[in-house]
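chain below, 334 aa
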Amino acid sequence: MQILKTNQQNVDLVPSSSSLDKQKINVAQATIILNKLSRSWKNRAQVRRSMGENILFNENAEDFLVDLLPFKDHPIFCNASEDMKRKILSCGWIIYNQKTITIETDIINPTCTNILSGIIPGATNPVSKQIICETMVDESYHVLLVTNAIALTGQKRDIFLKLTLFNLVKNMKKYQEKRSSGWERILVQLATAIVSEIFISDYLKLLSENEKIQLINRFTTKAHRDDELAHSNIFKNLTKCIYANLNRKEKEFFAEFLAKPVRWFADRELDVWQIALEQIGFKNAHNMILDCKNFNSKCLMHIDYSVLVSLADELGITNMPKGQDSFYKEGLIN
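prediction:
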């Protein structure tokens, strides 16, 4: 499919010379950074290191952090038995990793494929293609890493969950279905991927550094986090290259939409939690989850969106009326 190239010949859609100069500088700087990141892949990529198979599982260690549960202060949870609380923490670890698989397989890798195949312009040079391929290898490794983590937890804790689709993906697909143009649907997925990769979730840092957490779980999140720190930089600079090659109509759509996936990414996935809790026999799960849904369902905790705002500033998105309005409505800027 050839998209993102329409109307570029129209005079009324040609950006100003100063805007073009800034875009050229952004692309040049981004290409230099991408080249450096690609050259460092052999040394930094976690897929090239041990997966930590020899780390022993500690039956007495916690699998997840209570502070990361969306209902941690609810009386129904607080009054549960210690044994049930430990099961819930194991569910938290499984849910967290299953969401990682969903992000990688349904959002990131398809976007990388679109970029690599040339459907999305601006990243067709050898350096960009190389780093996209390396990123796809990293993401496949993350899927393997967390799949093993889920299997190990299931085996050791005797918990095997069948979960529903996560809201992050459901919201993206619903929004895509509302768009009539193919290029709009592709940009929706691209923006969702950018948001997902640019954010360094505090979950990764908190889980990898807390000594109460199962050592193998800490190893898993640390390996994932080390790669994602690089991926944040990669996607930030790929975005600069891609954005410079969009026409004005596409830029306006991208600017208006970019902030929206932030809420999707931060979603507490309460429907998923209810299904999990019911499967482990947690009483009053429905009432507890309903209370949580009725209380501040829009939450931006545990994510750092400052990098996205900074990127939007560099691209000039926050200076565009639609972009500025969108970032303000999502609570990312004042």
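Residues 106 and 169 are 7 Å apart (CA to CA). DSSP finds 15 helices and no strands in the chain.
thats it, cya
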